[in-house]
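User: For a benchmark we're assembling, each entry needs the component sequences followed by a predicted structure for the full assembly. Here are entry 17's components. Please fill in the structure.
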Amino acid sequence: MPRAYADAVQLVEKEARRRRAAFMSNSETCSIFNACDRAISESIYSPISTPEFDTSAMDGFALSSVATHDASSGSPVTFEVKGTTTAGDEPHSTLDDPRDGVPPCVEIMTGAPFPVGEDGDQFDCCVPVEEVTLVQNKLSNRRYMTLSKPAQWRQHRRVAGGDFGQNDRIIEVGERINAQHIMAMASVGLTKIPVMRKPRVAIFSTGCELLSSQETSHRFMIHDANGPYLTTILTKYGADVDFRGIVHDNPTAMENALLEALDEEKYDIILTSGAVSAGRCDMVPGVIDSIGGRKVFHKVAVKPGHPLLFSVLQEETAAFFGLPGNPVAAAACLRFFVLPYLRSLQSQPPEQPHPARLQVPKSTRPVLSFRKDADIFRPAILSPCGQFVQIIEDHSPGKTKPFMHANCWVHIPSGVDQICDGAAVEIYPRDFV
Amino acid sequence: MPRAYADAVQLVEKEARRRRAAFMSNSETCSIFNACDRAISESIYSPISTPEFDTSAMDGFALSSVATHDASSGSPVTFEVKGTTTAGDEPHSTLDDPRDGVPPCVEIMTGAPFPVGEDGDQFDCCVPVEEVTLVQNKLSNRRYMTLSKPAQWRQHRRVAGGDFGQNDRIIEVGERINAQHIMAMASVGLTKIPVMRKPRVAIFSTGCELLSSQETSHRFMIHDANGPYLTTILTKYGADVDFRGIVHDNPTAMENALLEALDEEKYDIILTSGAVSAGRCDMVPGVIDSIGGRKVFHKVAVKPGHPLLFSVLQEETAAFFGLPGNPVAAAACLRFFVLPYLRSLQSQPPEQPHPARLQVPKSTRPVLSFRKDADIFRPAILSPCGQFVQIIEDHSPGKTKPFMHANCWVHIPSGVDQICDGAAVEIYPRDFV
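Assistant: Structure for entry 17:
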């Protein structure tokens, strides 16, 4: 009796949790320029509040809004320009008394700090340069500025702490760093980012039928689609992947290949594809047994992918997944067993599916039927609006062409034997966020 | 009068088209293991049809279904097992006459080629091993197999050409290669993939206020968020990015920095952020003019991002984008001007927005207002179902914290001044597909 999917994936996550502490004890730092898509190894809180000081949002003049209250075109108000502050300058500091009763202002550029005045309101706001008239007194060489409408208190002033507060959380341990995290962390001055080391995965493709450049070949062999596909997805996920080549259906060769990988003592996961069912050539379960693997489960009630084998090869480190050989079955097992293992290993919560409405083509009857005894994962096409999903009809675990057109998976839980047009289903995007 | 967004982006795409032929003449090949996310440099058609030969979908026995038509539990039918074929073997070939009237069968494993018989139907189908009884004659050492129900014509047979047909298109010139393309190309035997060279981009951050490790600093400076963010997004997009550091607001320093980058004669795009508006410190437009740049436009009716400058520095190669300094404005200009340039350069069609329904929080009035004189790009949050989008209210081009929570942009075309709760809007995902 194969194991139910929900049970199997729980066992996968549990085994990953047993290795999590050891995995996470090896965190490292990387430059913020290379940190995108890495898993953060500790929650990050902003060390400062930003902006750290009040700055001008415009090019203009810092002045007291109170002094402008009576300004009008008939009765403009004049300020003496005491200096200029640009972004990157320290703030202008003036304690001058108003000369001849003319209040002071300071020319101030976007991003520049506000002047430090006698009190907090001596330069509370910025009047944009477009709204004033400038006059230079040729005798005294003093500059004056005139405006003809009142300014609002603190207008065009970006207040310190208006963006990040000190200790605001930016990202939580385990989260995958995205570009906006990069912007946020950079803006608060973080340049070396603590990240988990990349999970390390070894991949073998198995089968005498697989063409490999080292071997004599004949026209009844096939090309290996699994090695490149599994390597690509795991690399995109953020793993360090070694594709270790094709192994023939020969227990000794398989044993040697696995032992060689284990001897390097670096892999978190070793994967094979093919030779994992119960046929005469399916030597993977026996080989894993003979090299001392602890079997967690073999065969799961999922379609495609039921022959899946999950074992532990080294208690501290290396898990083993024996994926089926059919490319779409291998892809489903990678998506719904191996990635959950990696998520759990890195303290990431399980992926949540998205809801969508099943759309059945008009040409067929409006109900799709499924076998009830397995969880079914079917390649499907989500509409651009993200609302409707069509299951690809012409599918087979061995066919790569229909799978190429899919952009998501639909998950049909076991026990469901019919789904009507328009019913809610759960989908998982092709890639992963 | 700033230029309308639609006009501006057309000019951007037109300039990219002028450089497309030169850009695309430098394609290269890369291993299929590293080809994901690269832009393909020529349309790829399958060189073969797959499978190339008929194979078994099960472990079982290849035989003539006609010979089983009368089989029943009361009257089982017996076949002599003439041999075994596993995946990777050449097909069994037998021209033996049936011995003693006992028809022949061949043990055949999943993925193995069907036997070549006297005619096409001598071994048309496969009967799974679970459905037969095996008997060995100890005297003759011959093996026999008995089954007790009829088999269907061609059952469990994967027919040659059932997946890819020869010359089926896999991917079209310019498309970004995804993991499923990798699977498909691998399955038809492609190992070296023709890809465009990566676009090369130089990035400078400008501003005396930016802290840089080489400079003396004081507490009224800020951290550069644009360098790491722009580098990250462009790298994810598939560009080779050189962040060339921080340049102070000094025309000579800026000129030297740009000329040095141009002298390397390798960049498709040179980007700056900051100093591009009309203020006293905004020296970028003048510097681009003084080094002979051909201005295509300066200032666009978009919010954020209106100060954008787009010029051509070298007619054959280098385009220049002067992005605004506020991080969210720089991000919007990257997303809606620079990426369209790169798409056009690589023969990719313009990105199509996705539809979604605007969701206005219940606490506010059910209509959002916008200024009509610009195309507006607002960071927003798309619901997990992909159907509803909420515009982030507490936003500003200078604030990185609200932007961090966005997962998409909403585009509000100029001329629209109000949008009601539930109205259709166009969104662009945070990253890009």
